[in-house]
Amino acid sequence: MNGTGTAAEDRVFAALANATRREVLRLLRERGPQPVQALADHFEMRRPSLSEHLKVLREAGLVSEQRSGRQRIYRLEAAPLAEVQDWLHPYERFWRDRLRGLGDLLDRMPDDDRS
Predict the structure, then answer these.
(1) pTM above 0.85?
(2) Distance CA 104, CA 12 (A)
């Protein structure tokens, strides 16, 4: 992610912006590939609504779909998340440096010994 905001990058961030889609990714990460119905059992929504979320995740490259008979099995595809991590890394460094500076300032301040 080089800062130009390509369409693929924008799709990944848009997909991650939704709590339901993040939960689907968590389920796939923790429990491995699952059929649509197993995923749907975790949500209070109709299956067509979940299918729309899965479509967004598929188009962002965050999940893949494999057909097994009449079932569709979804699998986490983590490569786009590594790109998000790369994009976030400078911000993590920024905040780590800021917090270190705050810690240093607090360490230099006299303790308040009043009880």
Answers:
(1) no
(2) 37
